[in-house]
Amino acid sequence: MTDEEIVGYLDDNGYPPHIVAGGRAGLIARWKQFVEEVEPLIKPLFFKLQQKFLASPARKQLTGKRYFVLDRKWATDVELYRDENVPIETDITRIVNEYDKISGKMMGRTWARPGSMGVMDVLPLPKVGEKGRPRPLPASAAAPRVRAARA
Q: Who has the most CB within 10 Å: 3, 12, 97, 103?
């Protein structure tokens, strides 16, 4: 997305003027601020919330697949959580974003959906049918492989 498209998206979706005025650079700065300042403060609080959930007797009343997955994930999160890992996770988040930014530039395309709030500074995908982007397969071409895999 170009800077103008980002500003247009932010303006159209009711973001405050100080966010809109920053454009791409403003979003990147706000994201970095969140990762470095806010997220390290939230993680210990969220850990305590997860502990309270796991200790709650009402936890067993939640049935269904969605709650099973949540329960299993939070139990694992609580088991693995350590306060000393929070700064390391912050560094990992920054490094992964830099890697994504570099690999995105190398690919010359972004896989973020239009209108997403991704912060990577990469080139947009060409439109379907343009040079460098394959044309989509017709549904009939993909269907036989799907049926064969299920059989």
A: 97
